[in-house]
Amino acid sequence: MFLPLTLFKYIFFSLFALFFLSACSENGIDKLNKGDTLSVITRNAPTTWYEGPEGLAGLEYELVQSFAKKHQLKVSFKVMDSIEEMLTAIKENNNHFVAAGITRSDNREDEGFEFGPDYQQVQQLVICRRGAERIPKKTEDLIGLSLTVIAGSTYEETLKELKDDHPELLWKVETDADTEQLLEQVWKKKLDCTISDSNIFSINRRYYPELLMAFPVSEEQPLAWVLAPEWSGLDSAMEDWLDDIEASGELASLMERYYGHVDNYDYVDISRLKRRVKSRLPKYEALLKKAAKKSGFTWTFLAAVSYQESHWSATSRSPTGVRGFMMLTKRTARSLGVTNRLDAAQSIDAGARYLKKILDRIPESVQEQDRMWYALTAYNIGYGHLMDARLLAKRKGKNPDLWVELKTVLPLLSKKKYYRTLKHGYARGIEPIRYVQRVREYQQVIDQLTGS
Length: 452
What we know:
Elements: H1 5-26, E1 37-42, E2 50-52, E3 55-57, H2 59-70, E4 74-79, H3 83-91, E5 97-98, H4 106-110, E6 114-129, E7 148-150, H5 154-165, E8 172-174, H6 179-187, E9 194-197, H7 198-204, E10 211-227, H8 234-248, H9 250-259, H10 270-279, H11 281-295, H12 299-310, H13 330-335, H14 344-361, H15 368-381, H16 383-395, H17 403-409, H18 416-419, H19 430-450
Parallel strand pairs: 1-4, 1-5, 7-8
Antiparallel strand pairs: 2-3, 5-10, 6-9, 6-10
């Protein structure tokens, strides 16, 4: 007995569809079992993955952990140094995907790279230094300036396209530095300009306030994870997850944590401090003196630290979620018995105790005032990074017990050739130098104005 042709076609195409969907499923999330480990390539940078005072952090780190949690997977991060290295590795089916702030571009898709869903929009910006002799306003103004971008980047793609209309446009590519380091070189006047994604610039201009956005060289472009060919089917699971965290507000919360306040970051000048010594400090002076008596610090030192942290505002909040008068993280506050980080009395007392704990951990070989600067460094970037800097000082033949020598190696914690050899990886090493200097300057002003 033969089946009717219509019924035969129905059964054939149904079986074909079932086979096709099953094959797709095998390439997707169903290919992983609960408890399996996602192997994810990333880079060590403040916009992606880094070790902060409270442990691992970074937008890419948080997003990957969220995706893994949804599917009850573990995560193993593999840190690589350059875009070229990451893209080469993933194209060869090494690891599952790259989560490193990679731009989805036509050129990369033409080269066969598979992308997950877009999760952030950025724009390429020409970044120069405020006060420079020449500030470019359009592409032709870049001709004759020293311009460097990282190798294998979409910045390089953009410049090649611009060169079609501006043949005299020249630039250099850097294979052993990242965008953050090139921004630092512009700030130090070693380069006239570089190109940076807008999110990277937003984070870094807090540390290098003289950096200036000259003009954009692209429209907005999406960031997305790059999938290994063998795991291209994960894009469907990623889209479902992204829809979920957008609907729940989790994505907006993460963006707020890492980028929400960067435009408002302000280096407070001495004149503003002088005004606030009169207008704000009297309200908290008794609490600071009480905490100082218990901890052994001077009250003006605690006043200087808290001014650096919150400008003497009990309700302050940073992009990374630290809050209150002494800007405590949830974890630190909990460990110190703080029930309300916005309560100035609790925050001041806990902040002083936490600083004292750090101070007591500083090696005894570090003497006198230097111990205080070391404690502030650890308070700012974490004790692990302080120990890395001491190790690096030894390697450089410097005395790791002297602040004057340690501060010469701290900036190296943000340079690849050094941080990749250290236990705790990348750190914004220049920030604690400024942090310590500001606290010292603030304390001198407060001492003078209060007669202490």
